[in-house]
Specification:
- 50% of the residues lie in helices and 12% in strands.
- It has seven helices and five strands.
- A five-stranded parallel β-sheet has the order 2-3-1-4-5, with helices on both faces.
- The protein is globular and about 40 Å long.
Length: 193
């Protein structure tokens, strides 16, 4: 059973079911992986990056799956991986930025008891700048759908309502460090854990 939407970074206004897992969603560059790792460490929970789970299962990188099999095949793998993760407890899961495109994924999140979905939001210009900085790191993951700043902004605009649809909580990360974002999520959910 999903919970009523909570205001931005405010504690929940009513008693909630116990949260067994946190799912972080948002566009590329929003901090899902970085914030997720910090939050999991703070909670003493396990962290899972859904894209890394898919890569492990497929034996290929996300970029290779997109190039060889196209996005539809990747989205099917993503749904299977998400379904598996939603059975875990004491878990922080970082979704890929496009996971909300799948109606199946949105339904899984809506129907998952004990799951709280957090939308890490920031402006398009902030997200794009973060992605550019990250792409300079040779260890950084390749973002096959990044494109130029205009395409990036258009893709974000098409997804924004879907992120809001699945979210129980919205945290604006625009002017926050990853540590501050993790602390914002923790403060908002600690009474439900």
């Amino acid at each position: 059973m999903k919970h009523p939407k909570a205001p931005i970074a405010d504690p929940f206004p009513e008693p909630r079911d116990r949260i067994e897992r946190l799912v972080l969603t948002g566009f590329m560059g929003s901090g899902k992986t970085t914030v997720g790792r910090l939050l999991a460490a703070q909670l003493g929970w396990r962290f899972v990056d859904l894209d890394e789970e898919i890569e492990s299962f497929a034996g290929r990188t996300v970029a290779e799956i997109f190039a060889e099999d196209r996005e539809d095949a990747f989205r099917r793998l993503e749904t299977t991986a998400l379904q598996s993760m939603l059975h875990g407890v004491a878990l922080v899961v970082a979704l890929g930025g496009g996971a909300v495109l799948s109606a199946s994924n949105r339904k899984l999140l809506a129907m998952s008891s004990g799951t709280l979905t957090v939308f890490l939001r920031a402006s398009s210009s902030t997200l794009y700048a973060r992605c550019l900085r990250q792409s300079a790191d040779p260890q950084a993951a390749i973002r096959p759908l990044m494109g130029n700043s205009e395409a990036f902004a258009e893709r974000l605009a098409r997804r924004e309502d879907l992120y809001r649809e699945v979210a129980d909580l919205l945290i604006d990360t625009s002017n926050q460090t990853p540590e501050e974002s993790a602390e914002s999520v923790f403060r908002a959910v600690r009474s439900t854990l």
